[in-house]
Specification:
This protein is α+β, with helices and mostly antiparallel strands. The protein contains 12 helices and 15 strands. It is elongated.
């Protein structure tokens, strides 16, 4: 039987790393698209293991894969293979297999919302057989090959996505409204159709505001009025998620699509701490609006946003 292990608790890498770090496990084959500089710590492969990744000059130059990380793996005795265009994320042995969205990087471990499926038994062995098929001789990289990759000039380090950094020191406008949601489920087909009508306009608005155009959305038909420039906080499975700025509000009949840019913050409060600041609300928060710059500022300060 497999199980799904996702963000925010625990991040898949907690369990993946536990499997990889086991002293008693057999050979691991990782077929992972991109390998970041911190991959040897995030994904601690060892002698006898194999790694297949996109180590093409383009991936190295754009910093998607780190030649330094590959060299560290090579020194540990890990066999390295390169497959340009690889986008798989599979980490497996004959007894377990993780299949999901996780590249081998600190960013994946610490910042991104990831989901991975773990399988065992015959399913794991089938995945392992597939992974081994990717370790073909003409894809192998020698240490000299990796050293040549290290000589490729790298693109400038890209800043963190603006949607995660630009709001952390934003002034709180007077009268700004804070809205707290609880357990927002996956979008329905109807909501997807509604959102599709305003997606491109929302992306254009985000770019104009120097925010990332990788946006989330909520189709909202409740009585609370949401405005562009306001903040949304979602609570899921008893955990407070990252706050999001409302980039654009698109109207379609009685429905409003709230386009959201999520903000990376230094910290996140627990539900209990958030409740102390927000005050008397329903046990599940429900749909709750908090108005006034002072009150909103106190809530955002819990996230390290001033």
């Amino acid at each position: 039987m497999g199980y799904i292990n996702g963000y925010p608790k625990p991040n898949p890498w907690v369990r993946i790393r536990k499997d990889i770090a086991s002293r008693r496990r057999s050979r691991v084959v990782a077929v992972v698209g991109y390998v970041g500089l911190d991959a040897p710590t995030v994904m601690p492969l060892r002698a006898g293991d194999s790694l297949v990744c996109d180590a093409s000059p383009t991936a190295i130059k754009s910093r998607l894969t780190s030649a330094q990380a590959l060299l560290e793996y090579d020194k540990r005795g890990v066999a390295i293979y390169s497959l340009e265009g690889l986008h798989a994320k599979v980490i497996c042995s004959q007894s377990f297999a993780w299949v999901g969205s996780t590249n081998a990087s600190k960013n994946s471990r610490d910042n991104l919302i990831e989901a991975s499926l773990r399988v065992s038994g015959n399913q794991a062995r089938s995945v392992f057989d597939w992974a081994c098929q990717q370790t073909v001789e003409d894809r192998a990289l020698s240490r000299d090959d990796i050293r040549d990759l290290k000589g490729i000039p790298l693109d400038p380090i890209r800043r963190q996505p603006r949607r995660e950094s630009s709001a952390t020191n934003r002034e709180i406008p007077s009268g700004l409204r804070q809205i707290v949601f609880y357990e927002v489920g996956p979008a329905s087909k109807r909501e997807e159709r509604i959102a599709a009508k305003s997606r491109e306009a929302a992306k254009a608005t985000a770019r104009a505001k120097e925010l990332s155009s990788a946006l989330g959305y909520l189709v909202w038909d409740g009585p609370i009025k949401a405005e562009a420039g306001g903040w949304i906080i979602q609570i899921s499975n008893g955990h407070v998620l990252r706050p999001a700025l409302v980039v654009r509000v698109a109207r379609e009949g009685q429905d409003r699509t709230l386009w959201l840019s999520y903000v990376k913050t230094p910290k996140r409060p627990t539900v209990a701490v958030l409740r102390k600041v927000v005050g008397e609300v329903a046990p599940d928060f429900g749909e709750y609006a908090l108005s006034g710059a002072t009150k909103v500022s106190k809530v955002l300060q819990l996230f390290g946003v001033r």
